[in-house]
Design brief:
Number of helices: 23
Number of strands: 2
Order of helices and strands: HHHHHHHEEHHHHHHHHHHHHHHHH
Helix content: 55-70%
Strand content: under 5%
Radius of gyration: 23 Å
Largest sheet: 2 strands, antiparallel
CATH architecture of the largest domain: Orthogonal Bundle
Distance between the termini: 54 Å
Number of domains: 3
CATH topology of the largest domain: Hypothetical protein af1432
Shape: globular
Length: 458
């Protein structure tokens, strides 16, 4: 890979308006910031669904924080590698990282990763139970590759679909972002049919069959092939760092554990004295700032989060710098923070978050409720989409008519398109399923709950 190709200004729909005094990548960032999916993040789960405590993060506040760290990481990487990354590209690298960090979670369905699993399970059941779907998407009891788009539904692939198809900005090209930004946004580089659990950047679907041709063109033009864009590693590192740091902080704010218990648990899961050292640094800072008497748990958690981030960020940069050659040849294939000199501390943080926060009774109760909401809505919308013909006064027509105009228009236009990876005989059914998936995955948490209550009187 080389930077002259990675920093690519090509757009699928051409340049639909002059950027003026902005660069093409600054224009991309503006398109992302003002987009509807980014606004919806304010009412999507980060960890705690339907959270009333306004200091606990939503997906929007999380994404803003990731964007800030991704920009800083990218700027620092360009300074460290000034002899390897041409100086004229440094501002664009930072802008692309900031834009893609804002984009990274827009494809997440209601109720976060629990919502992803609920969608996957619904499709697995549907392909097994419904004869028409079973005939079109299975053979010999096994799911066909096209079924994998749904059975392995992933928010990253849905993000690509939202950015390139479902947003009304440039005809059928979604936000019509530059190929450089789209390349950076692709955290995973293959479709569901080609995933490989042993290869990190191929371990999840990065796009659906409906976006295959566009992403193949992006990969060719930017020169990444089926490898990650190097900036993507920095965006992922920013997300990983922010995730563990803010989840621990929010865990204290939500009284999942006291800060002393958090430090003890980090040590129990392999921090090797590093958590205790960070806690001492945090306590010293709290004392120096004269904040010891101001809600000490929350103040300590906030300070500990800052101290932890200030350690993990340079560790990720060290790993990026030392692995630069492997990254640029597409041979790296790891997570920067996990592979860094502080990988043990990072993994301890992940374990504590997983075992205490994601398993807390409050989160589990709301995830169970969310699963019911998602399954019921998918059933309902499928009833509206499944028939090939509709009576204007019939129930299915009414259900079909309340689906998003954007998504229905995309579906109706896509019926006329050809997709190399989708058998023509199954295309209509595939696109109907895609429409139902788009509709439910695009909802916010509160909207999904309100629609469930409104449509099912529950």
């Amino acid at each position: 890979m080389n930077w002259s190709r990675l920093i690519n200004c090509t757009r699928a729909g051409g340049s639909d308006h002059a950027a003026g005094d902005r660069t093409e990548f600054e224009d991309d960032l503006s398109r992302v910031v003002f987009s509807t999916p980014v606004r919806r993040l304010q009412d999507k789960t980060h960890v705690f669904p339907l959270e009333a405590h306004d200091s606990v993060r939503t997906r929007l506040t999380h994404s803003l924080e990731v964007s800030s760290v991704a920009r800083d990481l990218s700027q620092a990487a360009c300074r460290r590698l000034a002899d390897r990354i041409p100086a004229q590209y440094a501002p664009d690298v930072a802008t692309m990282a900031a834009a893609c960090a804002l984009l990274h979670d827009i494809g997440n369905p209601p109720f976060g990763h629990a919502g992803e699993k609920a969608i996957q399970d619904w499709f697995s059941r549907k392909f097994t139970e419904e004869s028409a779907l079973r005939a079109a998407f299975t053979t010999g009891g096994s799911f066909l590759p096209t079924a994998q788009d749904f059975i392995q539904f992933d928010g990253n692939a849905q993000m690509v679909r939202l950015a390139t198809r479902l947003q009304v900005h440039s005809n059928s090209n979604g936000l019509n972002l530059t190929f450089g930004t789209l390349s950076t946004a692709c955290k995973y580089v293959v479709s569901a049919r080609d995933t490989q659990a042993s290869n990190h950047e191929r371990s999840k679907p990065g796009f659906f069959e409906t976006e295959r041709e566009l992403i193949s063109r992006v990969q060719e033009v930017t020169g990444t092939g089926v490898s990650r864009n190097p900036i993507t590693y920095l965006v992922e590192a920013a997300d990983d760092i922010v995730n563990v740091c803010i989840d621990l902080e929010d865990g204290v704010r939500k009284r999942v554990f006291r800060w002393q218990e958090m430090v003890e648990e980090l040590e129990r899961y392999g921090a090797n004295g590093q958590a205790e050292a960070l806690a001492r640094d945090a306590q010293t800072l709290v004392g120096l700032r004269g904040l010891a008497g101001y809600g000490s748990g929350d103040v300590f958690a906030q300070t500990f989060r800052g101290v932890l981030m200030s350690c993990l960020i340079p560790a990720a940069l060290d790993e990026f710098q030392s692995s630069y050659d492997a990254i640029m040849t597409g041979e790296y294939g790891y997570e920067l923070v996990n592979q860094s000199r502080l990988g043990g501390l990072y993994l301890a943080c992940k374990q504590v978050v997983k075992r205490h926060i994601f398993s807390s009774p409050e989160v589990l109760r709301l995830e169970i409720m969310g699963r019911k909401v998602i399954h019921d809505l998918l059933d309902l919308y499928w009833e509206g989409v499944a028939p090939d013909s509709r009576d204007d006064k019939g129930f299915s027509h009414k259900l079909y008519s309340i689906i998003s105009d954007n998504y229905r228009n995309a579906f109706e236009q896509d019926l006329a398109r050809k997709y190399p990876g989708i058998d023509e005989s199954a295309k209509r059914l595939y696109l109907k399923l895609r429409l139902v998936c788009d509709q439910v995955a695009g909802m916010t948490d509160a909207y999904a709950v309100s629609q469930h209550r409104l449509l099912l009187n529950s």
